[in-house]
TrEMBL record:
Annotated TM spans: none
Gene3D superfamilies: 3.40.50.2020
InterPro entries membership: ComF/GntX_DNA_util-trans, DZR_2, PRTase-like, PRTase_dom
Tree of life domain: Bacteria
Sequence ranges assigned to domain Phosphoribosyltransferase in this UniProt record: 186-239
Ranges for domain Double zinc ribbon: 13-75
Protein name as annotated: ComF family protein
Family of the protein in this entry: Belongs to the ComF/GntX family.
Pfam assignment, any one: DZR_2
């Protein structure tokens, strides 16, 4: 069986097999079926959901009563996407959750993260999206990991909102070093010419929603946006599950 077919097959099978809302996805305690996002009450209450006090460009949380309405990073750097949203603050609990999804291969977590993301999109009134696009992984990395977590999120969001999840048209054509260990300048250089849009025609005049698990500096999203903008879309919105504070 080809890798892609196998991977799609596994996704469908896991969707079918995994019992939802039985255990808390953070602490793994048993929960009532009615608990939101498959979280127990105590773990739910610990999550710092990002509300209206957020940067109007990148969606990072801001201190209450903070003025201006952009975060320090967005006051200095111009991001080229239209607007980004994030759902929760990337604290230790959320870091572990994302880690378990990406490296522990607990794929079912993506389903519940996507539920949180869908509610955020609804709250922000994002209703007309033509393409939901995950930040792509390089082919080799995706093969190594077995899946792209951003695609799982995009897939579930697309399903819930009846939007088209598009994993094939934006591709990562070069392997890169991990952004974490690089300086600010190196990070930008590291992402130069690594993404590419296969067919530009289909994005023309369309509204795009980019999806990622964590928004950090926005460098990756900017690098993707740069390529997508060559195809003249109408807007590029961004949704990530978590983001750090930027003060
Ligand atoms: Zn819990
Ligand atoms: Zn910002």
């Amino acid at each position: 069986m080809k890798y892609k077919t196998a991977s799609l097959y596994i996704d469908t099978l896991l969707d079918f097999l995994y019992p939802r809302n039985i255990y808390c996805i953070v602490c793994k305690k048993g929960i009532k079926k009615t608990q939101k996002y498959s979280l127990c009450k105590s773990c739910y209450e610990k999550i710092k959901f990002i509300d209206l006090c957020a940067c109007e460009k990148c969606g990072k949380p801001l201190e209450k009563l903070y003025l201006p309405t952009k975060c320090p990073d967005c006051l200095k750097t111009e991001h080229i996407f239209t607007k980004a949203f994030s759902c929760v603050v990337y604290d230790d609990n959320m870091k572990q959750l994302v880690h378990r999804l990406k490296y522990g291969k607990e794929r079912y977590i993506a389903y519940h993260m996507a539920e949180i993301m869908v509610d955020k999109l609804k709250k922000e009134g994002l209703s007309e999206i033509d393409f939901v696009i995950p930040v792509p992984l390089h082919k080799r990395k995706e093969r190594e990991r077995g899946f792209n977590q951003a695609y799982l999120l995009a897939k579930y969001i697309g399903k819930a909102m009846d939007w088209n999840a598009d994993r094939k048209n934006l591709v990562k054509i070069k392997e890169t070093l991990s952004q974490n260990q690089l300086s600010k300048d190196e990070r930008k250089k590291n992402l130069k010419n690594v993404f590419s849009v296969v067919s530009k025609d289909i994005y023309k005049g369309k509204t795009i929603l980019m999806v990622d698990d964590v928004y950090t500096t926005g460098n990756t999203i900017d690098a993707c946006s740069k390529e997508i903008l060559k195809a003249s879309p109408k807007n590029i919105f961004v949704i990530s599950f978590a983001t750090g504070k930027n003060t």
